[in-house]
Amino acid sequence: QGFSIDGSGDTNADSCGLHYENSSHLVLRDMSISGFTAPSDSCLYTTPGASVAERAMFEHLFLGNCTVGWSLQNTSSSFVTMGYGNFDVYINLEANQTGIQSAGNGPSADLRLKVSVFHIVVNNDSPSGTCATLSNYSHWAEDTGVFRCDGPSQGFQVDGTSYFFFGGDFDSDGGISVSNGGHLVIQETAQD
Q1: In Å, how far are 2, 62, 84 from 41, measured between CA atoms?
Q2: How far is C-alpha 106 from the chain's CA centre?
Q3: Who has the most CB within 10 Å: 30, 152, 154, 189?
Q4: Other Cβ atoms within 10 Å of 32 Cβ, number
Q5: Residue 137: CB partners within 8 Å, gap ≥ 6?
Q6: Could you report the per-residue pLDDT of 137-187, keeping only the tens digit for each?
């Protein structure tokens, strides 16, 4: 709670500011992670592993200037779930960076982020960047709240094996790309 991790000057590929796996009820509060810019680096690296990493709460989490802001990867041979969480995350991108990268590990090893509440804002400070990518059986469903992609030219991308079903305030300045077979369903809530 209440600390910063700065990877400025990191030149090692595949580094990250914070890595967690198989952790249910994880709480991250008032944290800033930045500066992990070598190839395949990420600010926050999540590998749910063997089955469940549920009920996480991120409150006032800032991720900035990393090759990938938040990388979620299923590294196991069966499905994993990260449901029932509350994610308050602000991600700031520089040139050619990705805000969120979510990937399963094949048809019988999907990554499930379901029944969670989001307040996620991905802001791009350069003309290039990607808000979010869901690939290789990444399944996000029954999530609600706010998800905003402000500025990234590549917007929100869902490949042909993945889906994103969301209810709430969703916006992607860089557009939305859904490959054949993939699904993206947004049910906007009325604004006062």
Answers
A1: 23, 16, 27
A2: 18
A3: 152
A4: 17
A5: 74, 103, 104, 105, 106, 107, 109, 110, 111, 161, 162
A6: 999 999 999 999 998 678 899 999 999 999 999 999 888 999 999 999 998
CA pair distance 55, 70, nearest whole angstrom = 17
Which single residue is written with the structure tokens 């580094």? 15
Q: Which tokens sit at 115?
A: 């029944």
Neighbouring-strand partners of residue 52: 81
Say how far residue 41 (Cα) sits from the centre of its chain: 14
- For residue 161, give both structure tokens: 């094996």
Q: What are the tens digits of pLDDT across the range 114-126?
A: 999 999 999 987 7
Q: Are 58 and 30 in contact (CB under 8 A)?
A: no
Burial 83-121 (b: 16+ CB within 10 A, else e): bbbebbbbbbbeeebbbbbbbbbeeebbbbbbebebbbb
Q: What is the pLDDT of residues 22-78, one digit of tens each?
A: 778 889 999 999 999 999 999 999 987 666 678 889 999 999 999 999 999 998 888
CA atoms of 71 and 131, how far apart (whole Å): 12
Specify whether the CB–CB gap between 47 and 23 falls below 8 A: no
Q: What DSSP character marks residue 122? A: E
Does the global pTM surpass 0.85? yes
